[in-house]
Design goal:
Blueprint lengths: L6 E5 L2 E2 L6 H15 L10 E4 L1 H9 L8 H16 L2 E2 L5 E2 L1 E7 L9 E5 L5 H9 L2 H18 L5 H15 L9 H19 L7 H15 L3 H9 L10 E7 L10 E6 L11 E6 L3 H5 L6 E2 L1 H6 L1 H18 L3 E8 L2 E9 L4 H13 L5 H7 L5 H4 L3 E2 L1 H6 L2 E4 L1 E4 L2 E7 L2 H9 L4 E5 L7 H6 L2 E4 L7 H9 L3 E3 L4 E5 L2 E4 L2 E4 L3 E5 L4 E3 L5 E2 L5 H16 L1 E3 L5 E3 L2 E5 L2 H9 L4 E6 L9 H10 L3 H26 L3 E5 L14 H11 L3 H11 L11 H6 L1 H20 L5 E6 L5 H22 L6 E6 L2 H5 L1 H4 L5 E4 L1 H9 L10 H6 L16 H15 L4 E4 L7 H9 L4 E4 L4 H47 L2 H17 L1 H14 L1
Parallel strand pairs: 4-5, 17-18, 18-19, 19-20, 29-30, 29-36, 30-31, 31-32, 32-33, 33-34, 34-35, 35-36
Antiparallel strand pairs: 1-2, 1-3, 3-8, 6-7, 6-8, 9-10, 9-12, 10-11, 12-13, 14-26, 15-25, 16-20, 17-24, 21-22, 22-23, 24-25, 27-28
Helix pairs in contact: 4-5, 5-7, 6-7, 13-14, 13-20, 14-20, 20-35, 22-23, 23-27, 24-25, 27-28, 34-35, 35-36
Length: 961
């Protein structure tokens, strides 16, 4: 059995890996390997990457390493030492390394990095002598002690900062770079003393111990709280992204003087998407100074003036990398005494607006196809383009207190909090908060997520706060020097004092900060977004797929769950129609509510009909306005769904008395009816079509109102496409009876109005029984709409109102991998839909299918709906743009998967010649070659013939579910 390879080398113009090995080497390791080798051949310091497989083994083995790893690491460390001509931790000329994390999907700042590893009390003196730069050596050592002590050994970062600040204060300086060699030596001595007091032992001096401690810290950081939270917030699937790799790389130093420095660059603006080089640079610094926001960097244009050759070189590399990867690149680089080194490149994180602009621009530049462009943007990122902006009139009168770096676009307004913990706590209490910090750290991730905006006093556009805020779509202003912290609960902004809880506003697009609450307005779909979503609509409209049941389905629509007041917004966002118009909300308006309540407490049919007659013209007006708003688009009107007790609020004596007075009846009458209507499980109680069976006059009134409104619209020349949907159907007999009653009402209206109206009448499928009896129900239905909220409840047996008590435990313990009310369950609820699709279309091949639950706006659920052969999804208006994109992505990914499957199916035939060659070699030893070949030919032909049998396995699984 071949030994597993765990370590991969890069450097000296070549590499053992490449960009295709992200799942093995992580993004960082794969891209370093690609940059190091041809055709890029960029200046990359040598190093090696320990694979993600080791991370998995590390946790399986109880935080221990595979037996063969130590020898393999030593082998490649020796190769690295030979390449660099130095030994790790050598007393006279030490090799120093960085130890960095790198998952297959970028998680900026969430896992740990350690620089300058290999320094100790002796090698720091050797480094000082070798470089003739004692200040640099001691600065590197104090940085290493701080990073290793914090990351690998868990010493509080602030304890190191307090020592550093105290020394600076004693010397009367503000910046780290102003400290002299003897000052840094004092910092190191105090660091080591504090470390010993905290850990009960001296700071480690053995370079090997340091290296393995750092490797363990990086692997350990995969499961730190901030990394776990980041994966949850960004929907990173831990079944696909299974850990982090560790890259050990020779150090290059940006802190060796005025001809050295470090920078972070983006080949395009990650905030706006503009095609211009956006980079920041710090002289005499290391990379963590830029990323952590400890110092505010200068724009890359300053480098052009100071070191024009370096600027020209990094600009050329920017263009080469973007051309090679065909995407915007996030790059880290260091200049060591006038020589440029590339430390990282990756596809850069970007805001939603930037993602859309880059995608549209790159198609125009013929860099990528429309299909590739659509896959570049996550559906959730589109929400950022729909974030509110400041009200135009209000902002005219507002005066900014300060202005700084526009790090992440959008307007935000909230009460000042100073810690992530406060942000989370206040958010839980229903307050909108603004997180104000000197700089943010990865530990602040939870607070950053709930904040309306982020304001920092230091850091640049490439700092942690900026990068994470852009990824979340949270407005952010960075590096605001006018923000001065005066105590733990107070701050001055532009000279004005604020305390915790005071409200401020920021504009992450302009970088302006305001000392007041400013109203905001919603954004619209236009410009690049309109173009981009237009491509998505084209892809979905042209889509064709065949379901497992053998039915061919064309197109994949996106509708909205909306009522009249929401319809225009839905159409502005691109909805093709209304997939769910709820009628129950109409009854909560007066005077309909009082008439409906009187109907409920009525003791006989005649009284109920009399009260419903009063509602009829009002309902007709409601439906007419909806039809008018639709402008010919389809609208599916769901007849009354909730139980009647929702309309009779008499839980307390006070409420019962008020309702009795309002309706002109006795309190006893109200209490009696309330008791009759009260149900132990209303979700499964007297509601939906069950009301129509018990009280047919309710649905008859609604159908008459719909028919009369449609007749009125037709006479006025208005286009209409009205569909009627019956909820809570469990048996065909319910739908058969209700449909007959509805058609009788429609016939009467046609006769009275001189019209020939016809309506599609369909059924919701919300229960497993309905799905299993879909063939019988389809005999009386023109369409099915899957109510996936209730279908999930009844499939799982979970109450959506109560499952919050245990769902977090289920997710944390991985009993469930996803919340089934957020993402459709493929193997339970999905099976119900698949059964209903196959059985329903076996009776009616043109049966139109869609969903109208909350899942209609979830990208993973949309992909499942497409695969199952649904014609459309319907979601809330603000999720429509995301659903349009997710639907197109489902089409593109399904086509790619089908193409890949087709290619895989052909592979056995392609391998046949190789098999024959091997057979000939064996035959040559035992028999005449011709006979051997002839004897083997039939067997070679039979092998492909067995493939179809293998393909049957999935079909068996489906039938068993």
């Amino acid at each position: 059995m071949a030994k597993t390879k765990y370590v991969y080398y890069f450097g000296d113009g070549d590499a053992e890996g490449d960009e295709s090995m992200r799942l093995i080497l992580g993004g960082k390791g794969a891209n370093l390997a690609q940059m190091a080798k041809k055709p890029l051949s960029l200046p990359v310091p040598s190093g090696f990457t320990i694979s993600i497989d080791v991370c998995q083994e590390y946790y399986k083995l109880g935080k221990k390493y595979p037996a063969s790893l130590a020898a393999e690491v030593q082998k490649y460390l020796t190769k690295l030492e030979k390449s660099m001509g130095k030994k790790l931790g050598d007393e006279k000329d030490p090799l120093l390394v960085s130890v960095r994390s790198g998952a297959a999907e970028s998680m900026p700042g969430m896992m740990d990095t350690i620089l300058n590893l290999g320094l100790n009390d002796k090698s720091v003196i050797g480094l000082a002598t070798k470089t003739n730069n004692a200040r640099f050596a001691w600065d590197a050592y104090r940085r290493f002690i701080q990073m290793y002590g914090n990351v690998a050994m868990g010493v509080d970062h602030d304890k190191f900062e307090e020592i550093l600040d105290s020394v600076k204060k004693a010397r009367g300086v503000k910046e780290d770079v102003e400290l002299k060699t003897e000052d840094l030596q004092e910092v190191v001595a105090k660091y080591k003393a504090m470390y010993k007091a905290e850990k009960g032992k001296d700071f480690p001096q053995d370079p090997q111990e340091q290296m393995w401690g750092a490797i363990g810290a990086v692997f350990g950081s995969w499961m730190n709280e901030r990394a776990i939270v980041y994966r949850k917030l960004n929907n990173i699937d831990e079944n696909k992204i299974k850990g982090t790799a560790v890259t050990v790389m020779a150090m290059v130093f940006g802190n060796m003087g005025e001809t050295s420095g470090t920078g972070v660059a983006f080949s395009r603006d990650p905030s706006t998407g503009e095609n211009h080089f956006m980079a920041e640079y710090l002289i005499n610094a290391q990379g963590e100074d830029v990323v952590a926001g400890i110092r505010t960097p200068m724009d890359i244009s300053a480098l052009e003036k100071q070191q024009p050759k370096i600027f020209e070189e990094i600009t050329k590399i920017r263009n080469r990398l973007e051309k090679h990867y065909r995407d915007m690149q996030d790059m880290e680089f260091t200049v060591q005494e006038g020589k440029l080194y590339m430390l990282q490149c990756r596809n850069g994180k970007r805001t939603g607006p930037a993602a859309v602009k880059m995608a549209v621009d790159m198609v125009a530049e013929k860099m990528i196809t429309k299909e590739e462009a659509l896959l570049r943007v996550k559906p959730d990122q589109l929400d950022q383009l729909l974030h509110p902006q400041f009200d135009k009139n209000a902002i005219k009168n507002a005066k900014p207190l300060a202005s700084a770096l526009n790090a992440s676009p959008g307007a935000g307004c909230g009460a000042i909090v100073f810690t992530a913990e406060e942000a989370v706590e206040w958010n839980k209490a229903g307050k909108k908060v603004m997180l104000v910090r000197k700089e943010t750290s990865p530990d602040d991730i939870a607070g950053m997520y709930v904040a309306q905006g982020i304001l920092t006093s230091t850091g640049g556009r490439t700092s942690h706060a900026a990068v994470v805020a852009r990824g979340m779509g949270t407005p952010c202003v960075c590096g605001c020097a006018d923000v001065v912290f005066t105590s733990k609960d107070t701050v001055t902004i532009g000279g004005k004092s604020f305390k915790k809880g005071d409200v401020i506003s920021i504009d992450g697009s302009t970088g302006k900060v305001y000392g007041e609450a400013i109203p905001v307005t919603p954004a619209a779909v236009s410009g690049d977004l309109k173009t981009f979503l237009g491509w998505a609509d084209e892809i979905r409209a042209k889509s064709v797929r065949t379901t497992k049941s053998g039915k061919k389905v064309t197109g994949f629509g996106v509708l909205a769950n909306a009522e009249q007041n929401e319809a225009k917004q839905a159409f502005d966002f691109g909805a093709a129609g209304i997939g769910l118009c709820r009628t129950e909300h109409m009854f909560f308006e007066e005077p309909k509510l009082s008439s409906f309540q009187k109907m409920i407490i009525s003791e006989n049919t005649e009284a109920r009909k009399a009260n419903l007659k009063a509602i009829l013209p009002l309902q007709q007006k409601d439906f007419y306005n909806i039809i008018k708003t639709m402008e010919g688009r389809s609208v599916t009107i769901r007849l009354l769904d909730p139980p009647l007790n929702e309309f009779v609020q008499a839980e307390t004596p006070e409420l019962a008395s008020a309702l009795a007075k309002k309706l002109g009846v006795s309190v006893e009458t109200i209490n009696k009816k309330y008791a009759e209507l009260n149900e132990h499980n209303p979700m499964l109680g007297h509601r939906g079509c069950r009301l129509a069976i018990t009280y047919p006059e309710i649905y008859e009134m609604q159908v008459e109102a719909i028919a009369r409104a449609t007749a009125q619209a037709q006479k006025e020349g208005l286009k209409h496409d009205v569909r009627i949907m019956i909820p809570n159907v469990t048996t065909f007999a319910e739908l058969k009876q209700i449909r007959a009653q509805a058609e009788a009402v429609i016939a009467t209206v046609n006769q009275e109005c001189g019209t020939k109206l016809k309506f599609q009448i369909g059924s919701m499928i919300e229960f497993p029984r309905a799905a299993c009896n879909a063939d019988k129900i389809a005999e009386y239905a023109d369409f099915f709409s899957f109510g996936t909220n209730d279908l999930t409840q009844t499939t799982y047996g979970f109450s959506r109102d109560d499952y919050s008590k245990f769902i977090d435990s289920y997710l944390d313990q991985k009993v469930l991998l996803k919340d089934p009310f957020a993402t459709l369950d493929a193997t339970g609820v999905g099976d119900m839909i698949e059964i209903a699709e196959a059985r329903g279309r076996s009776v009616n091949k043109d049966l139109h299918l869609g969903i109208c639950g909350e899942h209609g706006g979830d990208p993973d659920s949309i992909k499942l709906c497409y695969a199952l052969g649904l014609n459309y999804v319907s979601c809330s208006p603000f999720r429509v743009p995301a659903a349009r994109l997710a639907g197109a992505q489902a089409v593109i990914e399904a086509a790619k998967a089908a193409k890949a499957a087709k290619a895989t199916a052909k592979k056995p035939a392609a391998k046949a010649p190789a098999k024959k060659v091997a057979e000939k070699k064996v035959a040559a030893k035992n028999a005449p070659a011709k006979k051997a070949t002839a004897a083997k030919k039939p067997a070679a032909k039979k092998a492909p013939a067995k493939k179809p049998a293998a393909k049957k396995a999935p079909a068996k699984k489906t039938t068993k579910k």
